[in-house]
Automatic annotation (TrEMBL):
It is a multi-pass membrane protein. It comes from Micromonospora fiedleri. It is found in: Cell membrane. This is MFS transporter. The keyword Disulfide bond does not apply. Keywords: Cell membrane, Membrane, Transmembrane, Transmembrane helix, Transport. Pfam families: MFS_3 (PF05977). Its main location: membrane. Residues 1-387 form the Major facilitator superfamily (MFS) profile domain. InterPro entries: MFS_dom, MFS_trans_sf, TM_effector. The chain crosses the membrane at residues 31-51, 72-96, 148-175, 208-232, 244-263, 275-292, 298-318, 339-356, 362-382.
Length: 395
């Protein structure tokens, strides 16, 4: 499972950078370029809740196999279209939407299957190791590799992730066992979805964390949806090449990977609530720093340190959600949480593109940085006492 995650997330990392870079070859409109990121994340808004209900009904490994097979087929078809000179911005939208739909199933299954593989007491350690390889592949190796692949030819940039997702399918076939959660009685898909949503919304701690991460993801998506226009090209503010842009994003990824390895140490040093507050400040600094500096070395340094600090948010919150949610509800709770967390991303991409059109690229970074700082209000409800109370109630 760990190996499949590494390969699959490397494909994710390539696609998320290669698609916007490819879009620039078809259009220079900030709204249309940002629309690629919106199309990729829109399925979280549309299909997250049904995906969670399906994950709680079906064998979670089989769902992951189907999702990766679909993504490999989509990127292979796009590579063929590009090779035949039949590519367009609208075809990029279609492939991004399809791959994003498969991602809702894969990621919900991947987070929900973990308590079936390791004891609950080991979840923070297991999540740390998974985050290390996922983020290393997705953000450390994927972005620079995407830059070089796009520079070598768009068809290569699409064939690469298609082959990687096919390799992830092979790795998943080696995972033995059944991963279908036992169900009591029968119910409709709609009733299953409603049960998961009620559990999440009535749980004040989980609800607060979900709302906070939803708005923070809006700020980061708005920023990075237009950052390519601010950073790439001789006439841009930063003036980077495509590979240089990939390397800039790699500094953030390197910090995130290192942060995933030391997240447990940060948690012990600061406590869970304080570590989450520091992570939120780090997000505000990362999205706001392009407004005050166009020096790639300054940006890279801030991205690296910010990446170290913000990773503790993911490790702490994912482990907590797995620990305090019953197995039979975990897929639905994960999907409801991600509906807020990822469903805000297409809105963020569109907001980023719209603000850039109206006020310029620099204004996007200022507004998003301030919005991320406002989220610290949520820490009034996210305290160590509230976390411990939720864990005791689950036990």
């Amino acid at each position: 499972m760990w190996s499949a995650s590494a390969v699959s997330n490397l494909a994710d990392g390539i696609v998320k950078i290669a698609l916007p870079l490819t879009a620039v070859s078809y259009t220079t409109s900030p709204v249309l370029v940002a629309g690629v990121a919106a199309a990729f994340s829109l399925p979280w808004l549309l299909f997250a809740l049904p995906a969670g209900a399906l994950v709680d009904r079906l064998d979670r490994r089989q769902v992951m196999l189907a999702a990766n097979s679909l993504r490999a087929a989509l990127l292979g078809a796009l590579a063929l279209a590009v090779a035949l000179d039949a590519g367009s911005i609208w075809l990029l939208y279609l492939v991004a939407f399809g791959a994003g739909t498969a991602e809702t199933l894969y990621d919900t299954s991947a987070q929900s299957i973990l308590p079936q593989l390791v004891p609950r007491a080991a979840l923070p350690r297991a999540n740390g190791r998974l985050y290390a390889v996922e983020l290393a592949a997705n953000q450390f190796f994927g972005p620079p590799l995407a830059g070089f692949l796009v520079a070598g030819g768009v068809a290569y940039a699409m064939l690469g992730p298609a082959g990687l997702w096919a390799a992830a399918v092979v790795a998943l076939l080696l995972v033995g066992g059944r991963f279908r959660v036992a169900r009591q009685g029968t119910s409709t898909l709609r009733a299953d979805i409603a049960e998961g949503v009620r559990f999440l919304w009535r749980h004040r701690l989980l609800r607060t964390l979900a709302l906070m991460v939803g708005v923070s993801n809006l700020t980061t998506t708005a920023t990075f949806a237009v950052l390519v226009l601010y950073a790439v090209g001789p006439n841009s503010a930063i003036g980077l090449s495509e590979p240089g842009y990939g390397l800039l994003l790699t500094t953030l990824a390197a910090g995130i990977v290192l942060g995933s390895l030391v997240a447990a140490r940060i948690e012990r040093l600061l406590g869970r609530a304080r570590a989450l507050g520091v992570a939120m400040v780090a997000i505000a600094v990362v999205v706001g720093v392009p407004a005050v500096s166009t020096n790639p070395f300054v940006l890279g340094g801030v991205f690296f340190v910010g990446g170290i600090l913000l990773t503790s948010w993911s490790v702490i919150t994912v482990s907590l959600r797995q620990q305090i949610t019953p197995d039979r509800l975990l897929g639905r709770v994960n999907s409801g949480y991600r509906l807020l967390a990822w469903g805000s991303m297409p809105l963020g991409a569109l907001v980023g593109g719209g603000l850039a059109e109206l006020f310029g690229l620099q204004a996007v970074f200022v507004i998003m940085g301030v919005l991320a700082l406002i989220l610290l209000v949520g820490m009034f409800w996210v305290t160590d006492a509230a976390i411990e109370t939720a864990e005791r109630a689950a036990t």
